[in-house]
Specification:
By secondary structure, this protein is of the alpha+beta class. Helix content is about 70%, strand content about 10%.
């Protein structure tokens, strides 16, 4: 009987203040959508870092015959200089940092260059002798790229040292800042959701002050009086959370998996709907907790026995 009465009062409150209920659902939906999007963006950044950092190389380019850089003032790198760099790559000092390495010859460099630029004016004027010998070094830990790069920079016969990780860092910085902006918007919307839920529950409690007064007279406890109002906020927030999960699932399924993953020309890993399902329970839990706490705080004045 008590459960039936609580459920009846909860449904009555939801339908009586339908406009406010819809407002709570929409605000919860938008705020949790931002929260979920921020979490998924961070997951995407972590996925891309793990995928791309595994492919990071430090490339050491030896001086070609036609280089005009100051580092190559003595002309093309000699075989002795190339052997010295290889000795450094295989030295015990760099063994903890280097997983493997390959040497790209002039012929291999020319072949790669022609694949990318063979149809252009530059490609038509290029010759094999213009290409540099280079070392492609795979790292044990991409975070330690600078330690390896510093060992080769400025050595005789070395034109330049290129680290792919330095190219990727600006991209991840932009994505991280976008994630922070999304998280900030999510926090603002969460505050708006708390305020709206609090206001809605207060109005609902004030409109039923006569009923709660009667319940006080018959000896009902605080929890029994407040529970229907708390359930109103929790159910409305839960509906908003489910809409947010549905929106995130559809967005990842159609935009990321269905369009973005197929449109991007370079190889990288993307988040999937499984990531949405992992985030979903936390969004639902957050919605219920925020609604329940907001309701409990707002009801202390109007339903105290």
């Amino acid at each position: 009987m008590r459960f039936r009465l609580i459920l009846t009062e909860t449904l009555k409150g939801l339908t009586r203040n339908l406009a406010m209920t819809v407002s709570v659902i929409l605000v919860a939906f938008v705020s949790l959508l931002f929260v979920g999007a921020s979490a998924l963006l961070q997951a995407q950044i972590s996925t891309m870092k793990g995928d791309w950092y595994d492919k990071v190389e430090v490339s050491v380019y030896m001086c070609p015959a036609s280089s005009a850089r100051a580092e190559c003032a003595d002309g093309e790198a000699t075989q002795e200089q190339i052997d010295a760099i290889e000795d450094l790559v295989t030295s015990n000092a760099l063994a903890p940092y280097i997983a493997s390495y390959t040497i790209e010859s002039k012929a291999e460099a020319y072949e790669s260059f022609m694949k990318g630029y063979g149809d252009t004016q530059i490609g038509q004027n290029a010759t094999e002798d213009m290409m540099p010998v280079s070392f492609r070094i795979k790292l044990v830990d991409a975070e330690q790229y600078q330690v390896v790069s510093e060992q080769f920079a400025g050595r005789s016969g070395v034109e330049r040292v290129v680290d792919q990780r330095a190219t990727l860092e600006p991209l991840f910085l932009v994505m991280n800042r976008a994630s922070w902006v999304t998280a900030g918007l999510a926090a603002i919307m969460a505050v708006a959701a708390v305020l709206l839920i609090t206001t809605t529950i207060r109005l609902s409690a004030m409109s039923r002050s006569r009923e709660t007064g009667i319940m006080r007279l018959v000896g009902a406890s605080n929890l029994f009086i407040q529970l229907p109002f708390m359930l109103e906020g929790a159910l409305a927030a839960l509906a908003g959370a489910l809409l947010a999960v549905g929106g995130l699932y559809a967005g990842v399924h159609y935009l990321v998996e269905g369009w973005l993953a197929k449109s991007i020309s370079f190889t990288t890993a993307f988040i999937s709907t499984d990531d949405v399902l992992r985030v979903a329970p936390w969004l639902i839990l957050a919605a219920i907790v925020i609604a329940a706490v907001s309701s409990a705080l707002s009801l202390s004045k109007y339903t105290r026995v």
